[in-house]
Every structure is written in structure tokens, then in C-alpha cells.
Amino acid sequence: MIDFLGLCVQNLIKCIKYIFARQVRFSAIVSQAAAISYDSLSISLIIAFIAAAVIAIQVSKQFLMSGADTYIGGTIAIVMIREIAPGFVALAIGARAGTAISAEIANMQVTSQVDAIKTLKVDPVGYYFTPRILGSVVTVPMVVLIAEVVGVLGGMLVSNATIDLHPARYMNSVWLWLSTRDIYISLLKGAIFGGLIALVCATQGYQTKGGAKEVGNSTTQAAILSTVYLLMADFIINLIFYIAK
Fold first, then answer.
1. What does the pLDDT average to over 215-242?
2. CB 171: neighbour CB atoms within 10 A?
3. pTM confidence score
4. Cβ(186)–Cβ(220) under 8 Å?
5. What kind and span of H or E run contains 60?
6. Distance between CA atoms of 190 and 236, rounded to whole angstroms?
């Protein structure tokens, strides 16, 4: 994993150079952004809603029994915005779009399309990686923000249905507990997770050699590696902003 991390850093540096050389096509970024985030929006929102609903079911009755039902909204909002929404959205996008990135680039590698790009004196890392990374960095935070809204509203609906908690009391708790700092950090997480998914999965696909079997193996490995690196990045970000503040 250390060697692979080094490859990811090298590819990221190449992409940064490619960006400053102004060789990135805007249309390619838009196309990749749509394929990565827009096409993953529905599954991400479903996961966010279900996660918030489960949390509401788990905590509502206990909070009501202890007389702390006014804290339900704030609890769900903090959990959703700080951790659940950015984490679950990133995992959903990694499972759907990340594996597709890896499979696409792996197929290009084994069918010699990458070699053809090299003969045109075009850097394949910059050409293939940069639009995907930029598209992810820009649009994954948008999906995270929408998922946070859906999650908070989902928790409100479930709390009202299970313990008849009035929406006004629920939302009042949300506004009291929530801070703009939490939202900013969640958006930062979304940007980092999005870029990490694209970088890791593209790097894994780019390292593929062989035939169709290796493409499948590479796709599976990309899903595993992206999940591991996402969790590691999540831990580091939480350590920096919430523990070491």
C-alpha cells in the first residue's frame, strides 16, 4: 500500500502540472462530473435518507424516555453532517463511479489505447486522470450537501412518525446545535474524498497489465483500496478538525 500511495502522489503531481499547462478541456471535466456525481446522486440520497431514518429510530425512543427529545434533531444533524453524509456518499460514489473509472482506464491499458496516446506525445496520466479528479473534487461536495439536507429532513419525518416529535422542535434543535464550521468541514471532506476516489481508482486501472481477467481484478482492487484510503483520510481529517482543535 505504501508503494501504491507513492504512485498516487506521482500521478497527482503530473495532473497538477497538466492543469497549470492549461491542457484540460472543460467539456471533458463536465462529462466526467456528470458520470461520477450526477449519475450517483439517486443512490447517494437514498442511502443518506435510510441512514438518517435508522438513526432516528434508534435514538428517538431513548431520548423521549429520558426527557431529551428536544435534542433529537441536533443529534441527527451533527451525526449526518460531520460523518454519515460525506462518508456514505463517498463510499457510494466509490462503489459506483470509482470502479467504473478503474475498469475504463484498465480496459484502455490492456487494449493499447494508452500506448496510442503516448505516440501522440500526450501525457496519458494528465489526459485521463485530470478531468476525472477535477470533476470529482468540484461535484462530490454538492452531492454531500444535498445528502445532508435529505438526511436531516428524513430524520425529522421519522421522528414525527415514531414519537410524534413536532417538526418545529426538531428544527429548533438542529439550528441550535449546528454550526457553519461543520458544514464547511463536511464539504472539504467531500472534495478530498472525491479527488481521492478518482485518483486511487484511476491509478489502479492504469497499473493493469494483461487481459480481461486482470481488468476485473483491478476493478475489485480499486474498490478495496479506495475504501481503505477513504477511511484513513476520514480519520486524519477528524483528528485535525475535531480532536486536535
1. 89
2. 16
3. 0.90
4. no
5. helix 41-65
6. 14
